[in-house]
């Protein structure tokens, strides 16, 4: 709304206003229909902006790299990468979230690495990406979060030649695919700070996925609720929308798809029955998995 006054007044009634699909928070950009009466805009219908297809975005901007990284050209415009990717039939991403190794960070990592070393082929051929959470030591509560300190874990992780201490959120390029990984209990936080909770709470993940794609942002919340280093806000943006968004949340396991973008959550590995997910990039499929109880 464009208004020359210092503050434009809105009136939204949960009883009289119609809300479309989505989780409407204070910081969201919305499309509203209503009437302007006595200096107050009374909204009758509120909805989210339409999701822009990634291919339309790339057609407009051309082959430049917006996703990130050192490459100047968008990986999707490199036909050779697409051809090589199709041959990676055995490639897979094993995704674990909310993994509590131990209260003692170093000892917990050591136990994990010792377990991985029992499988030499996995050590030699796999990449291990460690994304910090808000509960990790030595880290504050502002996004994007820095990687886990290598000085503390260097002796342990030296046994894994292909380990990566990533930021939160972080970005991964797998040949022509663009992947964003974000660790935060974001659905609960957005519901606590929304204007109106969606009617069908069983489909909160559907509303959440639609919201972050329409806002092109991982965390469309006010800064007082979810602080962000403003010069690095670009790391939270989803424009153009990537192929895969992994939102590691303690919320229930889910997978949603909008405009060829997959939004998935592996669930809590530690508080559930050791659930996790496996993503197969060749056919762009996500399998829900879990460890046997015995």
From TrEMBL:
The entry's keywords: DNA replication, DNA-binding, Nucleus
Keyword DNA-binding: yes
GO cellular component labels: epsilon DNA polymerase complex
Record's keyword annotation contains Aminoacyl-tRNA synthetase: no
A GO term for molecular function: DNA binding
Pfam families, alphabetized: DNA_pol_E_B (PF04042)
Localization terms from the record: Nucleus
InterPro entries in alphabetical order: DNA_pol_a/d/e_bsu (IPR007185), POLE2 (IPR016266)
GO aspect biological process, one term: DNA-templated DNA replication
Top-level taxon of the source organism: Eukaryota
Gene3D superfamilies the UniProt entry points to: 3.60.21.60
Domain DNA polymerase alpha/delta/epsilon subunit B: 94-253
Family in the record: Belongs to the DNA polymerase epsilon subunit B family.
Designated name of the protein: DNA polymerase II subunit 2
Organism: Romanomermis culicivorax
Taxonomic lineage from the root: Eukaryota, Metazoa, Ecdysozoa, Nematoda, Enoplea
């Amino acid at each position: 709304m464009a208004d020359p006054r210092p503050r434009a007044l809105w009136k939204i009634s949960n009883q009289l206003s119609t809300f479309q699909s989505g989780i409407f928070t204070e910081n969201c950009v919305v499309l509203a229909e209503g009437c302007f009466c006595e200096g107050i805009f009374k909204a009758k219908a509120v909805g989210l902006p339409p999701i822009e297809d990634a291919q339309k975005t790339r057609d407009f901007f051309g082959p430049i790299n917006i996703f990130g990284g050192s490459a100047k050209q968008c990986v999707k415009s490199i036909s050779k990468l697409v051809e090589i990717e199709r041959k990676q039939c055995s490639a897979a991403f094993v995704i674990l979230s909310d993994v509590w190794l131990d209260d003692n960070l170093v000892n917990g990592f050591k136990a994990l690495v010792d377990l991985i070393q029992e499988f030499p082929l996995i050590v030699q051929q796999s990449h291990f990406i460690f994304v910090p959470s808000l509960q990790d030591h030595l880290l504050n509560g502002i996004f994007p979060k820095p990687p886990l300190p290598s000085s503390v874990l260097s002796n342990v992780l030296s046994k894994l030649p292909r380990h990566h201490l990533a930021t939160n959120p972080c970005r991964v390029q797998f040949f022509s695919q663009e992947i964003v990984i974000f660790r935060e209990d974001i659905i609960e936080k957005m519901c606590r700070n929304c204007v109106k909770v969606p009617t069908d709470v069983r489909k909160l993940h559907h509303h959440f996925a639609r919201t972050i794609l329409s806002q092109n942002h991982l965390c469309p919340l006010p800064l007082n609720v979810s602080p962000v280093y403003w010069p690095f806000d670009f790391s939270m943006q989803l424009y153009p929308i990537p192929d895969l968004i992994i939102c590691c949340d303690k919320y229930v396991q889910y997978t949603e798809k909008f405009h060829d973008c997959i939004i998935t959550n592996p669930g809590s590995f530690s508080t559930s029955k050791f659930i996790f997910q496996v993503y197969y990039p060749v056919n762009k499929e996500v399998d829900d998995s879990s460890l046997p109880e015995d």
